[in-house]
Design goal:
It contains four helices and seven strands. By secondary structure, the protein is α+β, with helices and mostly antiparallel strands. It starts with a helix and ends with a strand. The protein has one domain. 61% of the residues lie in helices and 16% in strands. The strands form three sheets. The protein has a three-stranded antiparallel β-sheet with strand order 3-5-6. Strands 1-4 form a two-stranded antiparallel ribbon.
Length: 144
């Protein structure tokens, strides 16, 4: 593993500890399924954004011109889809309330962040349909 991946895992651990200590106070113990889906999807997108901003600061010009491809980062795909699903659930399923203990909040955040960590290098493509590993997919310009 690269140094930046060890740093990311350490930051995940710190955030998970903070969630255990403060989540029910800040986010509440009861919320709708839609709001929970929205929160966790936003967390996944936020993790991706922070990582991408870091990578932009470290990017060198050695990669040349970016290539255009019909693919999208898995984190962005899953996070964006989760935002849409969460918003629809909030509109359509107003009675679906869940109660989360600090341990349940911690588990949900930990699983979300670890999923983000493990799928960060994957892209979902079409034409042809595929999921492939591409560590340097920041240099790809999305196209339909």
């Amino acid at each position: 593993m690269r140094t930046q991946e060890w740093v990311e895992l350490a930051l995940i651990a710190a955030l998970v500890i903070a969630v255990y200590l403060f989540a029910t106070t800040l986010l509440g113990a009861q919320l709708t399924i839609g709001r929970l889906t929205l929160y966790l999807s936003a967390l996944l997108l936020g993790q991706s954004l922070v990582r991408d901003l870091y990578l932009i600061t470290q990017k060198s010009e050695a990669h040349g011109e970016p290539a255009a491809a019909q693919c999208m980062c898995m984190e962005s795909t899953i996070g964006g889809l989760g935002i849409v699903v969460g918003a629809l659930l909030m509109l359509l399923l107003k009675d679906g309330v869940v109660t989360l203990s600090p341990g349940a909040w911690t588990a949900a955040v930990l699983v979300t962040l670890l999923v983000g960590f493990f799928i960060k290098d994957y892209v979902f493509g079409w034409n042809p349909w595929r999921i492939e590993k591409d560590r340097d997919h920041m240099n790809i310009i999305f196209k339909w």
